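TA notes, week 10

Several of you asked for a full example with nothing omitted. So below is the full record: structure tokens for the whole chain, then the designed sequence directly under it. When grading your own attempts, check the secondary structure regions first.
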């Protein structure tokens, strides 16, 4: 049996979290593992009370079976254990020396590979992807191939009569003189019906007065990014550039976003490390019908530490500084979302958390 398949059955964003999976079935024909993690976190923002929540706990099953010495089949499913018990992803696939193909509800390439971000809570503001694609898709196909020379990862997501965005993504990675260089593009489109936007009163409540009408059309998001990473002993360093351009085919709506990020981590011991990051995001937005024509930028810096007692339990803490106005972003890795138009005025954020794995 090809044991390597067990390591790639779960999207890369979860690999480090699945080291404690419990093998419930194993034979020469294949294996089935059950895994999960319970998370808890305390967060504190300026001017707000301390908040305690479950930190996006989840549980899942992955299975791999050997068809022959060149071909394996696999399947994976994961559910959230938060307030709503809902499916995070579920897919089937096949793998061999030719690579791995998965089909179903899964993370798309750009969101899964993500980029330069060491945070457990607040980072990722410079990675301006997923506004239209969502980062995860109900109906997608993904192909991954890796050898000693290079890594290739591609996704295609079906529109299904505009019920979902149509997405194509292609990423690659090579090692150049000890530096891991990753680059990729994502193209996402989403059709929409005509709709009406109503004015709001001074209290922000929607009135019955029409502000403007939007005819049926399509939104398009072209995203591209490149990042470089290198390890120097116990120190790991990464830098990233990312850019997104969103346009409409029936209006002058246009949103250009650019992000720059640097992230570092340093191992203090086999079980403890410190990490940090500095991110800059910029945007230019224009939409005549909504009287929008603005440019803004935001800065985010974070510093944290993590201690892994063993493969089953870890604790971590993080502090972040935020300043400026952002066009919004979602970090699916940390289940962290910042709304479009959110503004911070030299604000500090604090968080501590713990995870128990099985």
């Amino acid at each position: 049996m090809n044991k390597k398949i067990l390591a790639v059955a779960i999207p890369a964003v979860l690999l480090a979290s699945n080291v404690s999976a419990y093998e419930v079935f194993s034979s020469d024909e294949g294996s089935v593992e059950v895994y999960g993690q319970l998370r808890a976190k305390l967060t504190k923002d300026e001017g707000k009370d301390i908040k305690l929540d479950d930190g996006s706990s989840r549980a899942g099953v992955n299975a791999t079976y050997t068809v022959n010495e060149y071909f394996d089949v696999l399947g994976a499913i994961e559910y959230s254990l938060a307030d709503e018990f809902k499916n995070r992803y579920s897919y089937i696939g096949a793998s061999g020396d030719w690579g791995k193909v998965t089909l179903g509800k899964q993370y798309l390439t750009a969101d899964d590979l993500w980029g330069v971000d060491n945070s457990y809570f607040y980072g990722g503001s410079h990675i301006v992807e997923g506004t239209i694609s969502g980062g995860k898709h109900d109906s997608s196909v993904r192909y991954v191939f890796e050898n000693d020379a290079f890594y290739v990862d591609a996704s295609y997501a079906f529109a299904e009569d505009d019920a979902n965005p149509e997405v194509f993504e292609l990423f690659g990675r090579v090692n150049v003189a000890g530096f891991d260089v990753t680059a990729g593009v994502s193209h996402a489109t989403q059709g929409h019906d005509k709709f009406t936007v109503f004015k709001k009163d001074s209290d922000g409540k929607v009135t019955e007065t029409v502000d403007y009408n939007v005819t049926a059309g399509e939104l398009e998001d072209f995203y591209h990014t490149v990042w470089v990473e290198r390890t120097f002993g116990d120190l790991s360093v990464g830098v990233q550039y990312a850019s997104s351009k969103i346009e409409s085919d029936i209006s002058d709506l246009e949103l250009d976003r650019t992000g720059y990020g640097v992230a570092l981590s340093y191992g203090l011991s086999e079980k403890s490390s410190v990490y940090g990051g500095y991110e800059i995001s910029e945007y230019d937005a224009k939409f005549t019908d909504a009287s929008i024509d603005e440019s803004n930028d935001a800065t985010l810096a974070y510093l944290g530490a993590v201690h892994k007692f063993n493969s089953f339990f870890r604790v971590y803490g993080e502090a972040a500084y935020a300043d400026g106005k952002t066009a919004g972003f979602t970090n699916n890795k940390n289940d962290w979302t910042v709304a479009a138009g959110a503004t911070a005025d030299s604000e500090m954020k604090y968080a501590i958390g713990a995870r128990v794995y099985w």
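The CA atoms of residues 263 and 277 lie 4 Å apart. Use that as a sanity check on your answer.
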